[in-house]
Every structure is written in C-alpha cells, then in structure tokens.
Amino acid sequence: MAFSLKSWIFAASCGVAALVASPSAAMVVGYSVSINDPIFNTGNGILNVPDFQITNTAEVGSGVQLTGFSISVNPGSDLYFDFVRNEAAITDANSDLVETLITPDENNNQVGTSVLAYSFAGFDPGDVFQFEVDIDRLNDSVVVQDFREALFSSGMIEVSFSDGTTLTDTLDPADPTAESFTFLNDNTAVIPLPGALPLLLSAMALGGLVARRRSKG
After folding, report:
1. Which one-letter DSSP state was computed for residue 60?
2. Which of 22, 146, 167, 209 sits 20 to 30 Å CA-CA off 132?
C-alpha cells in the first residue's frame, strides 16, 4: 500500500507540473452590435425603426459560434418592441446561418415586448446578421418614437456563445444624441492547447514507472 501511494503522489506531481508547463493560447470571443451604421431603412431608421447589425468577432478558426442575442428597453419604460423585419445574413461564409426570432414577432399590430431575442445556429466567426425593429409607446401607435429614448442609458445587450461564454453591455453611449452607434465586447480567455492532455498522461505514466523502479532498488 505504501508503494502504491508513493507512486501515485509522484506521478500526480509530475503530471501537474507538465500541465502547468504546457503551451497555452489566448482565444478572443466577442461581438459587435451596430445601430444605424449603416442605415438600410432610409425612411425612418433614425427614429422608431432602428437598423441593427450583429457581428461574431470571435477569433476566426476558433469554431466558437454566436448562439443567442437579446436587447432590452430601459427598465420602467413605456416603450416596447412591436415587430422585426428585414432579417438577413449579410455575411455567411459557410452559408449555414439560421436565426430564430423568439420575441417579439413580425406583425405590426401594436403588441410587443420589452425584450427582443434571437437564437442562432451556424453564426460563425466573421458572420454578420442584420434586422430592423419597430419601437412603439404603449397605448400610442401614431406618434413616431425615438429609439434612443427606448434604449439609452440603461437598456441591455446580452450575447451568448457556443463555448459557454455570455457577454453583456449596458447601452450607455458617450453621446446618446448621435444618429449611429457601435457596441463592442471582447473577452480573451487563456485555454490549454490540445496537446496538454497527452502530455499530462505521459508524465503520470513516467512518474509511476520511476517510483516503481525506486521501490525495487
């Protein structure tokens, strides 16, 4: 029993040392959300139907897909998202980007929600998705609202990724009176390279062998 315990303690220490010494890489996971930059609804894009573009800025080749996006209006606001339209993947390298609109819907019916949400499949690094959304005031479908009043300064963006990362932003731009905005959020994570596990297992096996020989000596 004493031999076995010593062997595994030695092997484990060698394995941990090997893992710590193994190479690692920094992987960037992030997104860019642009509002009215560019404007593709020239009629009222800068007022109550702002234009959005979402870009997956995760490192190309990482395989990390953007899986979810949501944006909310200011808490306590009487403004809401009525409908979404002009949805399109404008950059889709693998031709596999599929969106699912969760809320609101695509009907201009003065019925909406305080949160606009999508789920995605095939939203690869470098892909870009666009849409525009109508913003209305409760009990008032006539007056054209200003999207900046709905979103700034405490609306929220939340974006999720296939590696489990979730990034959030409070919509509080330096100049809330501007006509176009871009929000960026990048998260850099240090991850072990794929070769680390074989190295760890080899070190543990070697440690066990050395301990066995010492016990026989």
Report:
1. T
2. 167
What backbone phi and psi angles, to 5 degrees, belong to 197? -65, -50
Burial code (b: 16+ CB inside 10 Å, e: under 16) for 42-67 equals eeebbbbbbbbbbbbbbbeebebbbb
Beta bridge mates, 119: 68, 100
The predicted-structure confidence for 124-146, as pLDDT tens digits, reads as follows: 999 999 999 999 988 766 667 88
pLDDT at 78: 86
d(Cα 49, Cα 187) in Å, to the nearest integer? 30
Is the link from the previous residue into 153 a cis peptide, with omega within 30 of 0?
yes
Q: At 8, is the secondary structure helix, strand, or coil?
A: helix
Across 145-170, average pLDDT:
94
pLDDT in tens, 56-112: 999 999 999 999 999 999 887 889 999 999 999 999 999 999 999 999 999 988 888
Strands 115-121 vs 66-72: parallel, antiparallel or unpaired: antiparallel
- Which pTM value belongs to this model? 0.76
For CA atoms 202, 203, 205, 209, the dihedral sign is positive
Give residue 161's identity as a one-letter amino acid code. F
Q: What angle do CA 50, 171, 56 make, to 5 degrees?
A: 75
Q: Output the six-digit token pair for 66.
A: 């953007």
